[in-house]
Amino acid sequence: MSTPVKICSAEVTPAPTQAAYVLPDELKPYVTLLDEWALGLPVCTECKNAVLPKSLMDHLRKQHHLPVNVRAAVRTLVSLLPPLDIADLPTPPDGSAPLKALRVVDAFKCRHCSYIRQDLTDVRKHINKEHCITAAGNYEQIQAQSWLGGRRAVYWRVERRADRLDWEGPGCIWGLFGKGFGDKTPRNWSREMVEKSLAA
């Protein structure tokens, strides 16, 4: 635990450094630690959802049958992590690049506010009730992420950046999109984007 340091007669507790959150090798099959947005927040590698530090042991033990010989390492890790709670988790900006450790889900977003849910029925009810308008044409299908799963999920929209393309297709000697000897297309491009590139 950090020792308070006196500065100008006021006590300030130094913020933990990233080095304090080194993940032990024996926990790497079960947990990863975020190094952006919510520094030190554990993410279950199987569920691809974040787990609050105080709940990490119970989650791994009950949901994934964590071996007894690894539990001491979990206790040590939790003692080093910041005591994050749901209210401490920031919401990344709309349209952020996906966080690699978290699951990306298909979802629906209200066009009039930031309300996002995986269930279209929830979004339609929200639009009817909160905006007093018909749902038709007032929502859009998006990809989203959330720190937590289930009823505690609070989603934000994510967008895959064009500068990190995931290519598919055979090797290309020269040319792209069917021009030359290759026909690679970016897997995360929409059909419209590919057709536009072919027409160029």
Label this structure with key terms:
four-stranded antiparallel beta sheet; single chain; about 200 residues; about 20% helix; Double Stranded RNA Binding Domain
Would you give an account of this structure?
With 200 residues, this protein is an alpha+beta fold. It folds into three domains: 5-88, no CATH class; 105-158, Double Stranded RNA Binding Domain; 167-199, no CATH class. The protein has helices at 56-64, 71-80, 120-130, 191-199; strands at residues 5-7, 10-12, 31-33, 42-44, 105-110, 116-117, 139-146, 155-158, 167-168, 185-186. Strand 1 and strand 2 form a beta hairpin. The longest helix has 11 residues, at 120-130. It starts with a strand and ends with a helix.
| Mean pLDDT over all positions | 79
Count of discrete structural domains: 3
The helix count comes to: 4
For the largest beta-sheet, the strand count, sense and barrel status come to: 4 strands, antiparallel
Number of strands: 10
- Rough outline: elongated
The helicity comes to 10-25%
How are the strands ordered across the major sheet? 6-5-7-8
Terminal CA distance reads 60 Å
List the SSEs and their pairings.
Layout: E1 5-7, E2 10-12, E3 31-33, E4 42-44, H1 56-64, H2 71-80, E5 105-110, E6 116-117, H3 120-130, E7 139-146, E8 155-158, E9 167-168, E10 185-186, H4 191-199
Antiparallel strand pairs: 1-2, 3-4, 5-6, 5-7, 7-8, 9-10
Short recap of the structure:
Helix content is 20%, strand content 18%. The protein is built from four helices and ten strands; from the N terminus they run E-E-E-E-H-H-E-E-H-E-E-E-E-H. The termini are far apart.
